[in-house]
Automatic annotation (TrEMBL), chains A, B:
Pfam families: Bac_luciferase. Belongs to the NtaA/SnaA/DszA monooxygenase family. Residues 29-391 form the Luciferase-like domain. This is LLM class flavin-dependent oxidoreductase. The lineage of its organism: Bacteria, Pseudomonadati, Pseudomonadota, Betaproteobacteria, Burkholderiales. It comes from Herbaspirillum rhizosphaerae. The keyword Flavoprotein applies. Keywords: Flavoprotein, FMN, Monooxygenase, Oxidoreductase. The keyword Flavoprotein applies.
Amino acid sequence: MSTSPSKQMHLGAFLMSVGHHAAGWRFPGVDPANTMNFAYYKKLAQTAEAGKFDLIFFADRLAISDRFDNRFDTTVRYLAQARPEPISLLGALGAITDKIGLAATASTTYNEPFFLARAFATLDHLTGGRIAWNIVTSTNDGEALNFSKQEHLEHETRYGRAHEFLDVVTKLWDSWEDDALVLDKENGIYADPSKVHYLHHKGDWFGVRGPLNVTRPPQGHPVLIQAGSSDTGRDFAAQTAEVIFSSQPQIAAAREFRNDIHARVLKYGRTPDSIKILPGVMPIIGATQAEAEEKLRHLEDLVHPLGGLALLSDSMNHDLSVYSLDEPLPELENIRGNQSRYKLVQEMSKRDNLTLRQLGKRFGGSRSHRVVAGTAEQIADNFAEWFGSGACDGFNLMPAYLPESLTDFVEQVVPILQERGLFRREYEGDTLRQHLGLARPQNRFT
Amino acid sequence: MSTSPSKQMHLGAFLMSVGHHAAGWRFPGVDPANTMNFAYYKKLAQTAEAGKFDLIFFADRLAISDRFDNRFDTTVRYLAQARPEPISLLGALGAITDKIGLAATASTTYNEPFFLARAFATLDHLTGGRIAWNIVTSTNDGEALNFSKQEHLEHETRYGRAHEFLDVVTKLWDSWEDDALVLDKENGIYADPSKVHYLHHKGDWFGVRGPLNVTRPPQGHPVLIQAGSSDTGRDFAAQTAEVIFSSQPQIAAAREFRNDIHARVLKYGRTPDSIKILPGVMPIIGATQAEAEEKLRHLEDLVHPLGGLALLSDSMNHDLSVYSLDEPLPELENIRGNQSRYKLVQEMSKRDNLTLRQLGKRFGGSRSHRVVAGTAEQIADNFAEWFGSGACDGFNLMPAYLPESLTDFVEQVVPILQERGLFRREYEGDTLRQHLGLARPQNRFT
């Protein structure tokens, strides 16, 4: 009995340092020295590939977190802040994997489109079509200050820049037609210049003549991922994204979000199956539910509340050090950072009646993403329920402490999902687009 | 009998597409489809490592060549123009090698220091200290037009920017002291914030607050390479470079160049052994001298003269399509591109009384670098003579057609150099600095 691929969920592994949980580095069995260690990342990538994940995913930040108290002391002292630059890391991990997709985050606010188009096209060639770009607009002033700017762009402005940036990048990817190479050694004709195109792009933000000096990527375009949840962010995603990494802790809201995205996608002339929605989730696996809950409690005990608040300050681009730790999160306006993240945190804070100290611990855990603690069977049930009810097309896993959280999931949860026909037993294609069931884009110049 | 390392030469392999020679892609045995193929680059890197090379080296360009006739038709039609973005490529090749150094070219004119510092620091971590950055200021308007600029910066201006860029990058590499990580799981102290430093850099070109969000690279600083040969370029190299990739076709001039660099180095308070000078050379190996010369002749026959002139136009940032192909290179002033390259080409053109057509073929061959055609024994003799006479500290090999030119050198010339005690039989260290005999830089914040 075979199961149609469209009935199977997609899984990403969002790998962060030595664990997503702010206290992951302190957990038993974790080596906190691994944050820059290639052998460690290699093992993670190969574990995820053995688990037949669609992709592994790396975040990015362009500064040390220091919005809290206007110093980096809290984050440097209590958190594993150092992390690899993801484009170089993707190059390395592509070389030692065969099938799994690889996603790197890169900012449209602090990069140039020619550079990113070229790097992602190169990676897509080197990996035979396994690359995705997670498009972000960055979050705060600390990043601006490392790029000769005084402050971070306003929300709408940076989405304007993101739109133009993406337009230029996809045009650059198309600037060589698929059949531009002639490779006629006898007559000395390497390529057909009539199939290579200038862009002559001149917009509000960029002037880029093109063409790229890399041929068209194997996937046509590397897969485009986004995480924006604001109204502007949703609209941008509906126009351009192929995967949405969402933050949706509640099943009903997740279903509404997916319906909303599908409606927007139709408005832009796309079909709902051209976009896959993968909410973040942090699974905590135990032999019993009690053991899983105990692990989670232990992790929460180990988080320094100021570490979590420092991360939240960064995400909001607002210094929370000035408020009392024993009061709730105050009402704030004009957040220049991640607005939708702020809303989620505010809801969580009110719902569970949290003080700022408690909120710091909670945010340091999963950054407002969903946490599921239970046995492998319970986690599989939970994933099946979300997936089966149309709340998502799969999940972006946020392993709490590494490598164990990932290994446990691959060894214990994946076989159950496979047994139920909810997840692939083998890769059926070679490219990330094939894993995700996404079409290869037409070339606009052909 | 052991030979002191200081008496041994250093070897780089400057790998360009499917061969350095403009007609390399047409040569028998070469697969021109390899320009973006990872398996191919992997084999090259492993061959160079089997040959105990100090490093492999990748150039970079930020545009398709189109200075000639203001179109890219000539270069796209006759040359293998597509090539990988070198930072991603270095990530990939670092993952499948153990000892060999890896150098990527990156421009100070069209990048941001925070990004490059972070990428090179990451690569240095992932490879355990085997990375070098070849610092260039880029060459022409085609590159400017891909980065929202109208024209390339003037020579002196772009060196001013390069100085400041490098200052910021090295400060970022130092922004975490070597012992900043505490990793105290018990007490929850990840790092010591007093050993992490803001730069608060504000200069003519950049405002960069820092610190980096990557810990200090294993080599302290990745090795710094430069190729500038103008007076400004030499001075910049003497202050900052650790390896110079020079273009010196004549032994006497090469010795003068090396003496000049040593004198300048002393002026800046450095010692001559803190800088290694590796002139480019294209060896053409035959079973007999006649066979080698026949190979070279065949390669030259296969070059389209307009392809070579198009490359030269780009390098000079001056369109040569307006001159007669049957006349010599005219006297030109105010070249905004590679000035010292222009001088070399002009000397070569006068010395050998070349028409523009002949010059195009010659430049398409080795881009004005030295070509040595002969048996393996003759090439080893020639290398020994240059090295022994103080003309250089080793060579940056420019294999004409790949993989064969590299394989032949590793199998035939390297054993002779080893036999004579002129080249290592085994790697003695683990980092590129150790291969090159370069000290690990002190941290300016410690």
